[in-house]
Amino acid sequence: MASSRDDISRRKRREELRLARAEAARKARQRLVIGAVAVVAVLIIVILIVVKCSKGSDSSSTSKKSDTTKVEKFSGSVEPTVTDTKGKVALSWEAFESATSYSVLRADTAEGTFEAIGNTETNEYTDTTVTKRTKYYYQVIPEKKSKDGKIAQGDASEALEAYVLPAKPKMAIVGECYVEGISEWAKGELPKNTLILGKEGTTTYKIINDSDYSYKGSNVSALERTAVYKPDIVCLLVGMNEATNQDTLDTISNFDEIISSLQQINENVKVVIMAVSPTGKTSSLNIPTPVQRDNFNHEYEAFAETKDNVYYYDYSEIITGEDGYLSAESDAGDGCHWTSAATINVMKDLMIWLDDYLY
What we know:
By secondary structure, the protein is an alpha/beta fold.
């Protein structure tokens, strides 16, 4: 009986031991699986890090190589000129020997950072991404392309300034009796928005000081009326009434005051000083001789050369005879006024000249 109870007890302990061993084995397998999963996860993370680092290294290496790659250089440059500034900036230059293209750069100031805005295979370029009444600076670099496709660059040109006029610039013509004739006969040759201020007997002094014109209920001088109009271009046709005096100092001083006043309103205004007109060989009026006129015109031209945005325009050959006086077909009869035909011809020539030299 005792032996039977002992057998039951031993079987029970063996079963408990078996169950304990089974539980221990299960937990061991569980730990093994968890460990294996962890190892795999770590391996995946390591692989991802390695791949990422490898790509970053390649990218860094490529970037570094790109940054340190230098464009081949050669000696030589071009000299661009501005050919048109009405609503755009058109540039041209002499072709550079064996150049295959040209890079065009632009900056807001002469000392600013020049950035490439275009490339052309011809020796001209037009920049249409401009704002009217704004100043820009340009450089042009010649380029040569080798057979393997590599580009070599020459030297950048000196900074070239260009002031952009509106597509239809505001214009004013101010002066003496000839300007009265322009208002009467030659308006059609000028832009529709042209301000025309002319009066017989006008001098440079009177342009500044005489209140000959009405503006918004007030009497103002020709200079004041012109200034409030804020033109882009001002043509001054005056001097016949002053050229009988051999001394040009007062006239030139008055021109300087007129120009300074206009530039205070618009620092980029372009002022054209027109030559003193030839006069008839005979007249009852006090008019300048060819020698007196030539003296004044010489001083006009010399003065214009000393001033920024000031130009001298000599139209006299259109209406001057072989003897140096106003031609018979241009003389209205008194030796100091133009015929309608002469007035129209001078204005036509003025517009051509403006296209050639100012735009």
